[in-house]
TrEMBL record:
The lineage of its organism: Eukaryota, Fungi, Dikarya, Ascomycota, Pezizomycotina. This is BZIP domain-containing protein. Residues 84-146 form the BZIP domain. The keyword Manganese does not apply. Its main location: nucleus. The keyword Transcription regulation applies. PROSITE patterns: BZIP, BZIP_BASIC. Residues 18-42 have a biased composition (Polar residues). InterPro entries: bZIP (IPR004827), bZIP_sf (IPR046347). SMART domains: BRLZ. One of its GO terms (cellular component) is nucleus. Residues 1-101 are annotated as: Disordered. It is found in: Nucleus. One of its GO terms (molecular function) is DNA-binding transcription activator activity, RNA polymerase II-specific. It comes from Colletotrichum liriopes.
């Protein structure tokens, strides 16, 4: 005998209750569980109500949930392993390139220091030559005054 029943779902923070007014075809509901528990296996109305309530529960849980499920392994995990390997190769290449760049900078600094040292030595020699020439000019001026 068809029985007019209403099913309402209430819940806070993922705890859902299924309230049912009356019974339909021997179907009874547990007020604290998330599912209807049939008292017998027959009855299309009872199965339809159970399926629809389960769908509503799934829809309710998926919208605005506060907890996230742990990521399930998928076929893309093998791709992520390949991506991790590619990231490692990229990181190694970057490390080698950075090492070469730093070495190139050190080599350039060493080259500039070498050039500076050569320029300082040349300056010192020129200063010495200048001092000799000035001394020679001074000596020649003394000779001219006599």
């Amino acid at each position: 005998m068809p029985h007019n029943s209403s099913v309402s779902l209430t819940g806070l923070g993922g705890n859902f209750q299924l309230d049912h007014q009356g019974t339909s075809g021997g179907q009874s509901y547990d007020r604290t569980s998330k599912r209807a528990s049939p008292s017998y296996t027959g009855g299309t109305d009872a199965a339809r109500i159970q399926n629809s309530s389960n769908e509503v529960l799934r829809a309710k849980r998926s919208s605005g949930s506060t907890k996230r499920r742990a990521r399930e392994p998928s076929a893309n995990d093998t791709d992520s392993v390949g991506e991790d390997n590619a990231d490692n190769v990229k990181r190694q290449r970057n490390t080698i390139a950075a090492r070469r760049y730093r070495q190139k900078g050190r080599d350039r600094i060493a080259e500039l220091e070498s050039a500076l040292k050569a320029a300082e030595e040349e300056r010192d020699q020129l200063k010495l030559q200048l001092a000799r020439k000035e001394a020679e000019v001074g000596a020649l001026k003394e000779i001219m005054r006599k």
